[in-house]
Each structure stands twice: as C-alpha cells, then as structure tokens.
Amino acid sequence: MVLSAHDKANVKAVFGKVGGQAEELGAETLERMFAAYPQTKTYFPHFDLGKGSAQVKGHGKKVAAALVEAANNIDDIAGALSKLSDLHAQKLRVDPVNFKLLGQCFLVVVASRNPSLLTPEVHASLDKFLCAVGTVLTAKYR
Amino acid sequence: MVHWSAEEKQLIAGLWGKVNVEECGAEALARLLIVYPWTQRFFASFGNLSSPTAIIGNPKVRAHGKKVLTSFGDAIKNLDNIKGTYSKLSELHCDKLHVDPENFRLLGDILVIVLASHFGRDFTPACQFAWQKLVSVVAHALARKYH
Fold first, then answer.
1. ipTM of the assembly?
2. If you measure CA to CA, which chain B residue comes closest to A51?
3. What range defines the domain where residue B129 resides?
4. Considering the entire predicted model, what is its pTM?
C-alpha cells in the first residue's frame, strides 16, 4: 500500500485544517477508543481514564503530535517515527490490531467535527495514511 | 445471545429514528467502494465505478446502499434476535454471493464514520460504542452460516 501524491496532498490538507486543534482531536480520539473498544484500556492500567482525565488529554496530545509529525514528513514516515517504532516494539508492545481501532476513532473524530473536510477521497487518503502509521509503528515487532 | 443494555438500545433506536436510510446507505456503500477499492470486486455488474464521482453518482450503488441499510433496520427492530434476522442473508452471502465476511466489518466501520459525519457532536463516545457493537454483531450474524 503506497501513498500517492494525491493521498499525501489530501492528508496534508486535513492536518493543515485541523492541526491547530491537534491536542483536542488526540484526546477525543483516545476517549472514543476507550469507550468504543474497552479492551484498549488494558494498556493504560496506570491511567485515570475517567471523563476529562488530564492523563488522557496529555497522552492524546502526544498521539496527535506523532500524527502531525508523520503528516509533515509524509515522504518518510518510517524515518520520522523511527524512535516511536522502537518504543512500541521494545517497550509498549501494543498488539497491532489496536492501531486500526485508534485509526477508526480518529476518523470518527474528524468526521464528527469536520464532516465537510472528510470527503470520500480524503477519507480514503486519511485511512491509508493511518494504516501506514500503524505499519511503521509495528514494523520492528519481530 | 447478545445482551443490550437499556442505554444501548436507546442510543441505537434514538439515532436510527433520525437516519435518512437512503442517503446514509448510499453514502456508506459508496465510501466502502472508494476507501477500500478491492470491494468493487463484488459489483462488476454495477457499471461505472471508475472514479469516486462515478461511484457516488452510480444509481445501482445508491439503490444497493439503501437496500443494505434498510436491512440494518430489521436488525434494530430485532436486537434480541439478530442471528435469526440474518440467518437467510448469511446463507445467501456465503453460497450465492461469496463475500468474505471481512467486508461486513469494513462496511460497519464506514457506516459508523458516516453517522459521525451526519450527527456531529450528537454522535457521542457512548453512541459510538453502541453502534460499533451493533455493526460488529451484524457482521458476526452475517458470517454465522458460512461453511
């Protein structure tokens, strides 16, 4: 699966529009993921996952920043997220299936906040981008 | 049998009452074909699927999308027996249509995104949970008679 020039442009356009609210988007993505897929909470036993949790907000900010970084370096996502990829492989070891769940929730957040932004073509590009990010983060797992 | 809390039933039925089945169904199926182009393999007879514009405007896509989402309505009316509701459709999708059940999961996720885009903030995390559960149960029921 390869990101075309068109995909890259679409992704950059999305982050151009929503990048300013990246922290909120990240926090809401996590909130939705924990709500819609309770099994994802197993990776955060040390967190307060209640509504408005400062830890979830803080972590959402980190997740969003990584997505922004990947979008800003879309020609070399593997390079941009190399350290994060090491972290996920060696320390976090989040099962690969969960990246898809996070991706789904990110798309839901963008759809609910900016429906006009998420045209079918942009939806396709963003979905591919999120898959690419997940692939990079799990690339060194074995 | 799947257990639905009163809240989940409310969240599902409440939203469903406001859904334009024809529009949402058409949009969900079109997005499936656009976002996951390999799903077009099942629709060779639908004519022009050569671009997102062609897919969105394709009357067969619209009609089929409406049909698919209308059947969701049957599940919602029979939340306590989704398995039974989809038994024959499951056999059909296996024996006649030869559809990989993974496609039901893909369509379900797309439907959730379409609902989010239509209902915005009203599509709360709790609402998403109920609907992700519903689409998952429907996908499971449709795969149940596969052999």
1. 0.84
2. B125
3. 6-146
4. 0.91
